[in-house]
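Hi all, posting the design record for the shared folder.

TITLE: backbone redesign
STEP: 1 of 1
STRUCTURE INPUT:
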């Protein structure tokens, strides 16, 4: 088996190092949670196209172009939802969105596409959970975000029963999501940054 690109742990470190708001604690949590070391077999057919999109996102991440990296990673599930690359792209896209959210949070002029991303990411998370994803994916999307992000999720989930059934629950501290759990997963625990179980 070969690894056609660096492992997820390495890419998360590059998201951490990219210009913008620091996410060292959250990235460290994701690395400890077990994203490191995943290898995929060579891609053929449509998987090759997904791998090409992923490589474009990877190259943009190397350049520090977070917007292009996000857009390329997000194209993987849109165009190739069955590709294994979708699972690998999700935590990267989620943490890049985190950085872009805070980059543009108080700016009057924001990329038009940015406002559409929460609903897309919530749907993508639901697909990941259906495919066997777990707490790691949920943490990537929620930890460190403003409480309003979780409130947006709750509002969205109320009209999307397939998503609501997972029972994602979050806890905030001073308006920031500090822990999250998925009650619909067997043996789910609330996991805070650093891997400490929340009460």
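Okay, here is what came back for every position:
SEQUENCE:
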């Amino acid at each position: 088996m070969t690894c056609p690109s660096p492992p997820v742990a390495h890419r998360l470190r590059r998201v951490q190092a990219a210009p913008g708001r620091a996410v060292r604690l959250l990235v460290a949590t994701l690395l400890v949670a077990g994203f490191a070391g995943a290898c995929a077999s060579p891609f053929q057919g449509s998987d090759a196209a997904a791998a090409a999109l992923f490589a474009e996102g990877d190259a943009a991440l190397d350049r520090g172009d977070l917007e292009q990296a996000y857009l390329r990673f997000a194209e993987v599930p849109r165009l190739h939802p069955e590709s294994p690359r979708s699972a690998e792209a999700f935590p990267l896209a989620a943490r890049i969105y985190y950085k872009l959210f805070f980059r543009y949070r108080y700016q009057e002029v924001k990329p038009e596409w940015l406002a559409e991303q929460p609903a897309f990411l919530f749907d993508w998370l639901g697909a990941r959970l259906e495919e066997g994803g777990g707490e790691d994916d949920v943490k990537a999307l929620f930890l460190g975000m403003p409480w309003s992000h979780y409130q947006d999720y709750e509002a969205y989930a109320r009209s999307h029963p397939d998503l609501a059934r997972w029972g994602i629950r979050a806890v905030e501290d001073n308006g920031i999501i500090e822990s999250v759990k998925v009650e619909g997963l067997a043996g789910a625990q609330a996991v805070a940054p650093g891997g400490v179980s929340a009460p």
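COMMENT: Strands lie at 168-173, 176-182.
Let me know if anyone wants the other runs.
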